[in-house]
Amino acid sequence: MAGRGEGNGAATMAGVATGGVEDAYGEDRATEDQPITPWAVCIASGHSLLRDPRHNKGLSFTEKERDAHYLRGLLPPVVLSQELQEKRLVQNVRQFQVPLQRYMALMDLQERNERLFYKLLIDNVEELLPVVYTPTVGEACQKYGSIFRRPQGLYISLKEKGRILELLRNWPEKSIQVIVVTDGERILGLGDLGCQGMGIPVGKLALYTALGGVRPSACLPITIDVGTNNEDLLKDEFYIGLRQKRATGQEYSDLLDEFMAAIKQNYGQKVLVQFEDFANHNAFTLLEKYRANNLVFNDDIQGTAAVVLAGLIAAQKFVSGTLADHTFLFFGAGEAGTGIAELVALEISNQSKVPVEDARKKIWLLDSKGLIVSSRKDSLQPFKKRYAHEHEPVKDLLDAVKVIKPTALIGSAGVGQSFTKEVIEATSSINERPIILALSNPTSQSECTAEQAYSWSKGRAIFGSGSPFDPVKYNDKLFVPAQANNAYIFPGFGLGVVISGAIRVKDEMILAAAEGLADQVTPEHVDKGLIYPPFSCIRKISANIAARVAAKAYDLGLASHLPRPKDLVKYAESCMYSPIYRSYR
């Protein structure tokens, strides 16, 4: 991310823009045709300019720039356009057959030439999203110690307890707007990866910039290392984290309290802290503990819920009725499943003007011990109890489908192939157009494949998945699977928080993001069987989501950037980071 390995000179180099405008970040932002004067860098050192990823243009430095900044002789004589550089890099990346090699090549590019990295990602988002994020980032985290080259982000461990504020001040960028933080305990569906979970915040923030337009220098990836219970990692000579069992209880709680207090002291109350891949027992606790007095967001709970709710809203364009007419069965009652369930209940409550308690009765959850029913209430975790309905115990998924008769089957348990042929056929026998969402990541943990969903439902399923699947041909009809990727939501949501200067995240803002995404599904998309718009227009999608989130923040009195812009969509677009090279005097 921006700021890695940069000294004060490089950080200052963005320097003095001539005639720039003040953007949502409260900074002077030059327009694209206005040159930048890198006064802060010693002009005798063109070599340092080439090593600065934020300002390096490689072979795109013009003849005048090479003379002005002592780059003559440090580069071959040819001058290439950014477009030609991008074309060459696309070809190079495609030569790698192994996804992890592609990932490493892109991370190396990010370290060399930041703007070219983001231009490449923006222009080829559908092809490269699975490389820089799920599913490839999961393998990258598993092997992070072996492929580690340069530090990315900030590492805070138990060894630094009592010094977290000092560590934050070591980060070279001072104007931070979005932080993504993990403790590495539940990385995707791969479990405890400890300190090597850093690949997740790094990847998420790359998408905040590429898809949501939040500038790289405003993003800070953080890993909180409290140890790991992964024995393989503890024995691995290349493991980069603390070699101890995970801290729990008061020790863990005190470290997180210090972290949140230091964030607010160092950056103020308008920096968005996104919790990422915390284990269930901590994820809900941390969100509830800090949301009242801090600007916090949990992507696994709230982001996943928003993108799934958007898909469910869009699916109503295929079937008659409203969400309140459906019966939902969730396979998985962890942070993702219960987070989705609660947001669906809130949306039903809003649409039908009924108490949320009544809306929850349309939603059933099944965990590892079976259907969540009232007779289990005493042994349930608090976040599950609100879905413990009156019913006889049911042990397995197939039996639950037969007795609950869901119109929508949603999987988030991380148990691969759990949506068997019998389960999908049973769901399809109940519904003309069954909604089947296999949300678990990575692909190996998906509840079923797209081909299985379409073939076992005889082409009638409205299907979405957490991992990408190729189009499926069934009975001479081509089905395009929809990927319920959180990347639809969190970049635009974060941008909306930033441009409004929101000081808190409320459920109404999450609902606004989901509704904003669903609104982007056009009749043309429906004709193709899509419940999400194509990722090729993700920046337009993000701008519209940002505008909806910002509008809700203003409506709720939570926005601090005043006055309110007249056209929030245009304002969001104007604030988005551009990867186009700047001109240097």
TrEMBL record:
It catalyses: oxaloacetate + H(+) = pyruvate + CO2. Its cofactor is Mg(2+); Mn(2+). The keyword Metal-binding applies. InterPro entries: Aminoacid_DH-like_N_sf (IPR046346), Malic_enzyme_CS (IPR015884), Malic_N_dom (IPR012301), Malic_N_dom_sf (IPR037062), Malic_NAD-bd (IPR012302), Malic_OxRdtase (IPR001891), NAD(P)-bd_dom_sf (IPR036291). A divalent metal cation binds at residues 276-277, 300. Keywords: Metal-binding, NADP, Oxidoreductase. Pfam families: malic (PF00390), Malic_M (PF03949). Residues 110-291 form the Malic enzyme N-terminal domain. The keyword Transcription regulation does not apply. (S)-malate binds at residues 186, 441, 485. Pathway: Photosynthesis; C4 acid pathway. GO terms for molecular function: malate dehydrogenase (decarboxylating) (NADP+) activity; metal ion binding; NAD binding. It comes from the Eukaryota. Residues 301-554 form the Malic enzyme NAD-binding domain. One of its GO terms (cellular component) is chloroplast. Divalent metal cations. Prefers magnesium or manganese. The active site is at residues 133, 204. Signal peptide: none annotated. One of its GO terms (biological process) is malate metabolic process. PROSITE patterns: MALIC_ENZYMES. Belongs to the malic enzymes family. Homotetramer. This is Malic enzyme.
